[in-house]
Amino acid sequence: MSHAVIIGCGVVGAAIAYELSQVQDLKITVIDFQPPAQASTGAALGVLMGAISHKIKGNAWRMRSYSIQRYETLIPELEAITNRKIPFNRQGILSLCLQEDNLADWQKLAEIRSSQNWKLEVWDVAKLKSVCPQVNNDNITGAVYSPQDRQLDPTALTLALVDASQRNGVTFKFGVTVNGTLTSARTAANSCNQLETTEGKITADWFIIAAGLGSSLLTAQLNQMIDIRPVLGQALQVSLKHPLGDRDFQPVITGDDIHIVPVGNGDYWIGATVEFPNDTHEIPPNEELLKQVLTGAIAFCPELTSATINRTWSGLRPRPEKRPAPIIGKLPGFNNILLATGHYRNGVLLAPATAHAIREMIISNDS
After folding, report:
1. pLDDT for 40-94, tens place per residue?
2. Which residues pair with 5 in a beta bridge?
3. Model confidence over 321-358: pLDDT tens digits?
4. Which CATH superfamily is domain 1-89+151-227+321-367 in?
5. Do residues 192 and 186 make contact, with C-beta atoms less than 8 angstroms apart?
6. How far apart are CA 10 and CA 159, in angstroms?
7. Spatial strand order in the sheet of 252-255
């Protein structure tokens, strides 16, 4: 029986664990120095922008389309296995078009999506006001509605993936830290077979690095530095006494990179900022930027003026330096160390496709 060790238990690591738990004769261990969904996953808004994205071909589009379709079966599958409820908004994403946006470009994208068997609807202002009267801004020239895109609760999803994986025999070790490196017995075949941790050495056939920002340190100690840097995102949750607009139609509303995410009972998540390190490589949360996000949301939906702020939070997203996100594949120089990291702002969206890709790499190598 082969043994795979996954380092990191955010949504990507948990999705990989669940995917691999369905492979016969494969033992799986997941390690993380903290509980699941604590880093960037715990701060994510869970907006799944697939059809409404401008990715139309290549691997970037294939991963998005695969993940969106997989979530339609994955969520009920996990709920049935674990008896956990995973909040999953199936009412789509509504992208607001501002004066600088070209509706003709959106119409062209809608035609491309139609040829790919996906739906996009381009709305004029009259249609927007009739369907979503809560949106009221003179700078809005229309909207694009994506009925097949989704939003979910990333923490609930991750905990369900962990639960389902455990039921399938996966071992999780939380509070365990990698002791510096995969300082293993490196063989002539360019592979490693041991991982040193605070619980001792773990011997395995495969090592999957899904540690987000922690991936850089792990790979650097193998002399193959994968440079992943933090980008801070802040968000907040607000409450109204009633839902915005039609209580029976509550899509995610997005515009100018601001998301208004309904989470039930008149509550909304609003976010998120994009904040880069300063000259001292630190990212202190910028309160003014978070205020600007809230102000922007209120500009789209003025009723939010009366909302009460329940909480604010932030998280660091893992952004690859000078290369596209995400990073999926073998670590250069090693045949059995796989990378599934650096998803930046799309970890939740791309988790199913990433897990599928890792599974295929392992199966194809072992067959």
Report:
1. 999 999 999 999 999 999 999 999 999 999 999 999 999 999 999 999 999 999 9
2. 29, 207
3. 999 999 999 999 999 999 999 999 999 999 999 999 99
4. FAD/NAD(P)-binding domain (3.50.50.60)
5. yes
6. 9
7. 121-123, 140-146, 93-98, 252-255, 258-264, 267-271, 228-239, 308-320
